[in-house]
UniProtKB/TrEMBL annotation:
GO terms for molecular function: 2-dehydropantoate 2-reductase activity. Transmembrane segments: none annotated. Gene3D superfamilies: N-(1-d-carboxylethyl)-l-norvaline Dehydrogenase, domain 2, NAD(P)-binding Rossmann-like Domain. Keywords: NADP, Oxidoreductase, Pantothenate biosynthesis. The keyword Iron-sulfur does not apply. This is 2-dehydropantoate 2-reductase. It catalyses: (R)-pantoate + NADP(+) = 2-dehydropantoate + NADPH + H(+). It comes from Caballeronia glathei. InterPro entries: 6-PGluconate_DH-like_C_sf, 6PGD_dom2, ApbA, KPA_reductase, KPR-Related, KPR_N, NAD(P)-bd_dom_sf. Belongs to the ketopantoate reductase family.
Amino acid sequence: MANSDNRIGIIGGGAIGGFYGMMLARAGFDVHFLLRSEYPTVAAKGFLMHSNVYGNVRLDNVQAYADVRDMPPCDWLLLGTKATGNADIAPVIARAAAPAAKVLVLQNGLDVEAQLRPLLPASLHLLGCLCYVAVMRKAPGVIEHVALGDVHLGYHSGPADGGTTPQSILEAGAALFQAAGIKAKAVPDLTQARWHKLVYNVAYNGLTVLLDAGTHALKNNAHSQSLVRDIMLEVVAGATRSGYPLRVEIADEIIALAENMPDYLPSMYLDYREHRPMELSAIYEAPLAAVKATGFSMPKVEALHQALRFIDARNTRDAHDTHQARTTAHAPGALAAGMRADARAAAGHDL
């Protein structure tokens, strides 16, 4: 392969990991995917991407693994899993990493690297990777790329070794993405970059769940559009108060960008729809706590967070109850018949 000097590992083959892994692999890099539920399908059929930018892209003969012990050690590891599972995934990262590997955290929110750092070997370099992309997982091994794809890389921490500097690592990481046709740049301040992305994430992720609407529906209603902007401006003010100044014009720029994109459902909405825990700690709790420590407040963000906490608790509880009902439905005897009927009713309601 022309670009196989660096072995790249993708941990998690959902929308984010699948998209960037596919792009790197089709550019000729030596890419290895560590998968869970996606593994049987991807191992047998590969990845398929429907993209508004690249057309239909297929990746066959994927180097896929269900067990990290079968995966070769990788020089670069792209973490495409949810921040809610970082404590569990840390030992997997350590096992998949080559000596002095670079771990790129492709997650939303604030302080995700700080939470992950104590769980990883000190010999690993830890980087944040902000993904400006609209992409969704449609089915196992099937990805829909709506728009964009840019990445911003920031250095968090790592070993001090003489010939390697954080800047050189960032530039090498950006070069990998650039070789795959993805716009990429190194940013001097990772926390500043994360606050910038939170302006979008805090508003659109939460409001699509709360209002059960995509980005175009939010755009087409004056009240929801006003609320989007108000929340964005609170995040801008909170970031500035926390020592990471952002221009107030960013809110209108992000809204204009969203308006010019196809209708989109952010990752938090998809987690809600699939009854998975939402990434509320990284996207809401961490920035709210950082702002509160300055004596400032973001009341609309706080209200949105409280509403999402209620929705998340009910949503995950309902999923658990439905699972229990379906499991119990296999019990023998007449009692089981009634339980099966209840389970069918619950399943129909979920659908």
